[in-house]
Write a structure and sequence with these properties.
By secondary structure, the protein is mainly alpha-helical. It is built from 5 helices and no strands. The protein has one domain. The protein is globular and about 40 Å long. The chain starts with a helix and ends in a 7-residue tail after the last helix. Interacts with the iron-sulfur protein subunit within the SDH catalytic dimer.
């Protein structure tokens, strides 16, 4: 793949991810947009092998999320995301595991805050 084709593919995928994120609840959209932006910046100068894996994983993510955001799927399942195979952790670097933990912590904190909000008095 030529350099121009690669840049074009990355740009299309990047834009697609942000379009799919528009269907997310606001707090998830902000978190997802920030995470995607950081990841794409972080992998801007990675080697071709890492780039291939990176693009495949983000493409799978965009497809999965787009399917889940369809209105009919929202009515049926009322869920976003899917569980990760724990065996994938064996293939991650320490840095990736820490990053995954931080993402999990941020996601659960916003959920916990939503649940524990005091009720408004009438």
């Amino acid at each position: 793949m030529s350099s121009l084709e690669h840049v074009s593919r990355v740009r299309r995928l990047y834009k697609l991810i942000f379009r799919v994120h528009r269907a997310l609840p606001p707090e998830l959209r902000i978190m997802g947009d920030n995470y995607a932006r950081d990841e794409f910046k972080r992998h801007k100068k990675c080697n071709p092998e890492e780039a291939k894996i990176f693009l495949n994983e983000w493409t799978d993510y965009a497809i999965t999320l787009a399917k889940q955001m369809k209105p009919l799927q929202q009515v049926k399942k009322k869920k976003v995301g899917e569980y990760m195979d724990p065996q994938l952790l064996d293939h991650m670097t320490d840095e990736q595991i820490v990053q995954l933990y931080e993402l999990h912590k941020a996601a659960t904190e916003s959920t916990d805050e939503d649940i524990h909000l005091p009720e408004k008095k009438k």
